[in-house]
Amino acid sequence: MKVTNLDERIHVLDNDSNVMTVIKDIAMSGLQEEAFYVLDIGDIVRKHQIWKEKLPRVDPYYAVKCNDNLIVIEVLAALGIGFDCASKTEINKVLSTGVDPSRIIFANPAKPASHIRHAAAMGVDTMTVDNESELHKIKKLFPTAKIVIRIRCDAEVAQCQLGMKFGCDPTQEAPNLLRLASILNLDVVGISFHVGSGCQDPPVYQRAIHHARLLFDLASDLGFNPYLLDIGGGYPGNKGSSIDKIADVINKALDEYFNTDAVHIIAEPGRFYVASAFTLATSIHSKRSVRGDENSPNSITHNMYYINDGVYGSFNCLLYDHQRVTPLPLKNGCGKMIPSSIWGPTCDGLDQVVENILLYEMDLGDWIIFENMGAYTLPVASPFNGFPVPKVHVVADESIWLLLKDALPLTEDHFVIGNTPANLRLGLDIGGTDIDAWNNPTTIELASAEMLTEDATTSSPFIYDYVEVDPLN
């Protein structure tokens, strides 16, 4: 829902603006009630520069499932990155930006038949396999496909383990699949693996690359001409994280086992590129203060804050991606810190964002910021209970604009230049398409900006009473 499409393009910031100033400007405008994101595409560009510096031999194929935001895909396409797609819908979304099918790997080892047919029709011919039935399926539906055998080599510590579902045993099952592919006259072009998302076990890459080398040799002995090694994902992307240790292990293993230009090395990073690029802003719409026991009946022992996004929205990452989130109040607090919890907006008791944390006293209308919210959040979010999925507002500084404005599929039309904060205030959560409605104060009732003032002495425009409840267990 929008008044203007200005907020759907990339806003070029002036030298005095950044992600946090944009968030403050929107929050303090008095026009915004719903949760929203600010996406800094400069963060994605900087991540790409880090990748090319740390892993110069490895071409990244972005895992679309991590965050399929169209601007993200367009920026990555402009940077020349390939894409890891898991379905025909993801394939279509990437192809719609003008990406060549050769820059896509269909990296889902268990594919519906219709999706294989669609990949064949679209010219996406490289795909992963980890079982016999998939080889027979591809033989029937897409016999000219380029097959990549996916092996299992699990990290001992990872945010999300994948080996329980995908990947064949590298010493028993993988050789059998190579032999079956030879019998079926299919074209095996390489080996892939995925150690687990959010890997914290760098040595696992060395073990996996060693397994791949042995299977490359066996494939060659069987008459194949393997040329593709896909080292999967697992690369951290939060602020303050580093891929240095993982990169050191990978680079040494590649030098030892694949010291040749004849093998194309790719990877499937997802969260590395987008985790820190997205910052989520939420506001407190309700508050429940738990009073002390009968010995101190007026003492608040716990504050429960209800915000306008939760585990059915952006914070599904708490359930599905084992994320840990850190709330950052937009206003500086003072006084005594109080044990607090943060809850989502739905009527489900499961909808808890933060269980227990010390926070300064906050009021209705105050904003809480969450960084590192770009990975496995928006693609899974739903409007359960009628609460909307947060809108994404995209920003970039001038240097990023100069770098990308003529890099297809991006063009100058993707960017808005000028007084960016003023543009971003428009059309944030108001239904309709008539921007003139803003000129009629009787048509749209807006929240007062006074409720967001940082002056602690200003009274809240909300009228509410504290309700005494039993202490939380």
In words, what does this structure look like?
This protein is 26% helix and 23% strand. Mean pLDDT is 84; it is low at 157-163 and 427-469. The longest helix has 19 residues, at 203-221. The protein contains 13 helices and 20 strands. With 473 residues, the protein is an alpha/beta fold. It starts with 9 loop residues before the first strand and ends in a 49-residue tail after the last helix. Strand 3, helix 3 (70-78) and strand 4 form a beta-alpha-beta unit. It has 2 domains: 10-32 and 278-373 and 377-427, Lyase, Ornithine Decarboxylase, Chain A, domain 1 (Beta Barrel), CATH 2.40.37.10; 41-275, TIM Barrel, CATH 3.20.20. It is elongated. The strands form 3 sheets. Strands 1, 2, 13, 14, 15, 16, 17, 18, 19 and 20 form a 10-stranded mixed β-sheet that branches. Residues 42-275 form the Orn/DAP/Arg decarboxylase 2 N-terminal domain. It is an enzyme of class 4 (lyase). It catalyses: L-ornithine + H(+) = putrescine + CO2. InterPro entries: Ala_racemase/Decarboxylase_C (IPR009006), De-COase2_C (IPR022643), De-COase2_CS (IPR022657), De-COase2_N (IPR022644), De-COase2_pyr-phos_BS (IPR022653), Orn/DAP/Arg_de-COase (IPR000183), Orn_de-COase (IPR002433), PLP-binding_barrel (IPR029066). One of its GO terms (molecular function) is ornithine decarboxylase activity.
